[in-house]
Amino acid sequence: MAKEKLLLLKNIREANYKGDLDSYRKTGGFTALEKVLSAMKPEEVVEAVKDSGLRGRGGAGFPTGVKWGFMPKGTGKPAYLVCNADEAEPGTFKDHLLINEDPFLFLEGMIMGCYAIACHHGYIYIRGESIKSAEHLQRAIDSLYKEGLLGKNIFNSGYDLEMTLHRGAGAYICGEETALLESLEGKRGQPRVKPPFPAVSGYNACPTTVNNVETLANLPFIINEGAEAFKALGTPNNSGTHLVSISGHINQPGVYEVEMGVTIRELIDDYAEGVRDGKKLKALIPGGASSNVLTADEIDIPYDFDSLMKAGTMMGSAALMVFDEDTDIVELAYRTIRFFNHESCGQCTPCREGTNWLKHMIRDFMDDNGNGPMLERVDRVAEGMIGTTLCPFGDAAGAPIRIFVAKYAADFRNHFAQ
Amino acid sequence: MPSFFLDEQQIEFSQGESVLRAALRHGRDIPHYCYHAGFSVVATCRMCLVEITDMGNGRPMPKLQASCSTPAAEGMKVLSLSDKVRTAQNQVNEYLLVNHPLDCSICDQAGECTLQDVAYSYGSGLSEMNYEKRVYGWRDVGTYIMLERNRCIHCSRCERFSREVEGTSDFGMFLRSHELTFDTFEDHRIMHKFQGNLVDICPVGAITEREFRFKKRVWKLKKTESVCPSCSTGCNITIDHHRNHVERLKPRENQAVNRWWMCDEGRLGYRKLNARESRHLEPQARVKGKLEPAGWEAVYEAMANKIEEISAEGDAVLGIADTHATNEEMYLLKKLLADCFGGARAYFPFRPGTEPQTDRFLYTLITTDKSPNTQGAQAIGLLGDTDDTRLNSALAKGPKLVILLGMPCAGDKQVREAVSRAELIVLIATEKSAWDDVADIILPGLIYAEKAGTFTNKHRRVQRIQPAIAAPEHCREQCRIFVELREAMGQPLPLANARAVFEEMGGSDGPFGGLTWAEVGTLGVPLNGEKTAPAGA
Ligand SMILES: Cc1cc2nc3c(=O)[nH]c(=O)nc-3n(C[C@H](O)[C@H](O)[C@H](O)COP(=O)(O)O)c2cc1C
Ligand code: SF4
Ligand code: SF4
Ligand code: FES
């Protein structure tokens, strides 16, 4: 296996690392936090993160420091940082690795993030199904309180911070930040109209930033080693390392930490040790179910935000799903649309009706009941969902289906009625 | 004022206003379902998509935008008719029709259905969906309404109305994705008095009025702008009628009075408008103790003779009006007494009632004064107190002639007895009442749906009613009755109709001074020099 570049998984990759507060301390944990609270102004933290070029790992890849910069000051309202631990994008399982095995890394990052945006009450929103992780995380938070790393006057700095863990009720859409905030407020989890953006009116109509677990986990490194050290990793405009969840027909599925810009082929062959059973690669989904599929000959590209965007897909949550030559893309498309149909919140007309209609049609293909006009209709119905909905879910559900049809039309034709 | 361009047309907007709202204000139509100016913007139906070729900073928006949630910006260039927009509109509407039943032929909403209208104007007319449609079935959700969820297009207006405007949150969103449904809890029945508004805001026939179900195709209805007389708020309404039969009353937007709403009691007021059994349908005169039908001319002549015979004036004559009479009728009564009976006076039962003290604007609509013109009587200067002190002391003086306009104090036995001792009792009324036993002469008038005039509402706003349906053959407009009576008495007052009366009131000093009929228009005006606060401000 090619060597990982370890920033985030450094501790986890240690054989005997236990992930409790003591072990985290022993590896130099909380030195960054101490530095921030004793020697840095909040604006300086924001600047450092801006300079590092860190981009959000939740899916959209938005520069984190810039996002923090949107938080208005002097509104007289409390500011909130909400950590998005919903991790529901199919194929993604890297946030849970951090939560389960080294929770203090991202918690340290989160405390610094809260400090940076003058937040005195942070929330972590974890998906409802993750009961064990939630219990584990709660114990970690409790121990931070016990050690005085949360609560009043942290490190005698005069900075107070409360932290609350909130469990969702099991809905993919609650990973979308405004749906998450609705859910956090105790309402039905469905995306809000933007504007106003969360920075202006988020949790309880107060200025709010939502950050992904992995995003926050990068902060200790950036503070300890400096923004330049972070920027030196990866490709221009795509700084740092990132956690890639690799799954599917692959010899070594799992989470890999690599510098941005390692190619997809390297990830599959050198890290995850190739396609299972020596089979040939047929298709690859690079960034979770919402991203457009790549064919076997499209994978010699750097795995970073910009390169994937250029290739007509996206890195999303860095979930690589590998499909071998025996895969029936119709089945894959059906699984995908069934998921999106099940998870749509149902507010928007195109998403509510389109996902269901597509599911019916692709089901027909599965039953060898397809035909040419129906294939065109699949494309048309999927197209109508793109760019017409309230939240990006419509695109996420529609675009991959269009691309399945465009790139693997033969698979669909195999299911035409005889 | 800042402005933007909508398909080349310059549109002015106020700060923070959405593209859709500004466009609608300028009479432009961008199809929409979920947007309603009465509650929050959710931007979920996606029907109002527009193309923004310039955000006002020279840059275009890459995607189509929902015009209901896009704030207008100076210099913005918006296209609502481009091919891209047309395609999207067509597609959104197609998605809506995927699960919508094709039961327009038995749907009450057909003819005033936004989905139908938009489908005709913007849809392709084709459905390629060949799977079974979603089926839920009827639900009896409220005392006034029924819910047919198959027709629901998930605009969430009912949910927002219930939560934001009405406040009981009867309607909720259940389940998600294509199973999403708007409904009440199974064992919950909507009981409040504003259910009809749910019917109005529902863009399709999912929420229907029990009272109106399967009764009439709406395109047959004529709408006459009027004012609800069922309480002192005077919600602006249309009287919807066909072949001289009133089918329903609907609220009419007036931001200064009722916004978009009215109550169900007011709506049910339509029933009375078609009633005949309860009405006086021809003039009657008492002959040997018994009321007998008589012709108008004969009655006028008999009255004039009797009046001359009694030759009473001052305190020996009095008038009593109820507060269902229009301003003009009250004015004519007062004037008749003053001009022809040596300064005789007119009284009225002053029952101002109360308006609920609540932050929920909707609930302030229903007042306890169930008549439309108490403030009018007050402003015109009829004499009244809450316990009828002045009326009773006037009656104690034993008047010889009493003129009753409407059915004032009909339930008050003491007043009836005092009046019954007069030598001549003239009753100008539309409906039968206890006064019939007392009256010597009954002159049948017109109900509000049959005549013109004005009412003065609880906030002293003058609002106009207009004739919607024709009156029964032998009934006459009250204003006309006063004019004809004076004619018979040889003291003519040449005022042709309610409008002429109002213009005369407007030409004099006093609270109506300076107002004109035209100015009152369809939305009303505050009494002279007064300011009525806009509703809920
Ligand atoms: C449908 C949908 C699902 C999402 N799910 C997640 C998720 O599970 N976890 C996450 O961190 N971000 C998710 N996001 C992205 C969030 O909206 C948000 O951009 C992100 O949490 C911001 O954090 P970041 O800036 O650190 O990336 C989702 C977005 C959409 C549209
Ligand atoms: S696009 Fe889909 S998931 Fe997103 S708000 Fe609309 S209906 Fe909900
Ligand atoms: S019942 Fe009517 S108002 Fe309510 S969501 Fe459905 S269509 Fe909209
Ligand atoms: S009216 Fe704008 S999305 Fe419904």
Key words describing this protein structure:
heterodimer; A: 418 residues; alpha/beta; Ubiquitin-like (UB roll); de novo design (two linked rop proteins); 3 domains; five-stranded mixed beta sheet; 18 helices; globular; B: alpha+beta; Alpha-Beta Plaits; Rossmann fold; 23 strands; elongated; binds flavin mononucleotide; binds iron/sulfur cluster; binds FE2/S2 (inorganic) cluster
How many domains of chain B? The number is: 3
Cα gyration radius of chain B (Å): 28 Å
Summarize the amount of helix of chain B as a percent range: 10-25%
The CATH architecture classification of the largest domain in chain A is 3-Layer(aba) Sandwich
Specify which chain pair forms the largest interface.
A-B, 28 and 35 residues
Query: How many strands appear in the DSSP assignment of chain B?
Result: 23
Which structural class is indicated by helix and strand composition of chain B?
Answer: alpha+beta
Beta-strand residue percentage of chain A: 15-25%
| β-strand number of chain A | 12
Number of domains of chain A: 3
Total helices of chain B: the number is: 15
Which regions of chain B are unreliable across 5 or more consecutive residues at pLDDT < 50?
A: none
The structural class of chain A is alpha/beta
The CATH topology of the largest domain in chain A turns out to be Rossmann fold
N→C terminal distance of chain B: 23 Å
H-E string of chain A: HHHHEHHEHEEHEHHHEEEEHEEHEHHHHH
Largest sheet composition of chain A: 5 strands, mixed
Q: Main beta sheet of chain B, described?
A: 7 strands, mixed
